[in-house]
């Protein structure tokens, strides 16, 4: 990719912020609505993102990178159990819009490309690190292996989204789930 | 609906069985493939189900009714805790094809109609009954309310499907989740 001039960089960032908002609300929204919210012309959107699929993937990548960075930051937390569950909370709470974007990408005839896949792998690695720390700290069951804990994270996220859970129900669902993950007192 | 003659009823049942198999494998499969597997002409399929959406909904309804009947049957089981977890297991294990059909219905431009909604409500009621019995039996935490337990069921189903989990990982995921639902020894 060619380096972008400062104003082009600003436009790109504005378009991504607007797209996250617009597609988070409705995955079937049009690129036109993104241009309006970003206050740029539609031609500018297409110059940065020639297809809707490319725009959706860029939004998904940004979200995954942000979650990865949050997991890395939480790995420095004093209480590894609290850090692990705080990250789990955040992923599930954010899932509605993140999954809507992933679904929209599927509907746009493209599954996640290299950038989103790399960001996803980085997020999983950082989550695995939080899990390992919480297990070493004795706060999460040592016999819970990564694949099934990650499956619970995905499942809780999808359950919260599919059932459009009220935040109170979501929190009680997570409390039950965390009861299974925590070591017994 | 007009009563069907015996051979028409047989054709309808054969089409539904074939459709469950074909759309369970791939929600984007064509009605033509269903006709071939059912060994009937495509005109016969369209006579029973004028649109793909109607065929998909009939398949989804049959599956939900079957799960509801299974939950009702399990409610007669001696061990209400074992009955509750056996039903949970079965829903999650079957989720891959059931969800594929629900997704296909969405993609066909129609969300579940009255028949599927009624079957879904019957299934939820029967599941709620299994939960109440397991709680009265002291095997499931009494403070777990239906909405969050149902959200866990949906979440575990979607997690197993989205991540295409190996059966072993699925079982370990459920073991963690059940640890959170069970009363403490």
Automatic annotation (TrEMBL), chains A, B:
Stretches of the chain forming a coiled coil according to its record: none
HTH tetR-type domain mapped to chain residues: 9-67
SUPFAM superfamilies: Homeodomain-like, Tetracyclin repressor-like, C-terminal domain
Superkingdom of origin: Bacteria
InterPro entries: DNA-bd_HTH_TetR-type_CS, Homeodomain-like_sf, HTH-type_TetR-like_transc_reg, HTH_TetR, Tet_transcr_reg_TetR-rel_C_sf, TetR_SbtR-like_C
PROSITE patterns named among the record's database cross-references: HTH_TETR_1, HTH_TETR_2
UniProt KW keywords: DNA-binding, Transcription, Transcription regulation
Residue ranges for the DNA-binding region feature of this UniProt entry: 30-49
One Pfam family recorded for the sequence: TetR_C_43
Record's protein name: TetR/AcrR family transcriptional regulator
Protein species of origin: Kribbella sancticallisti
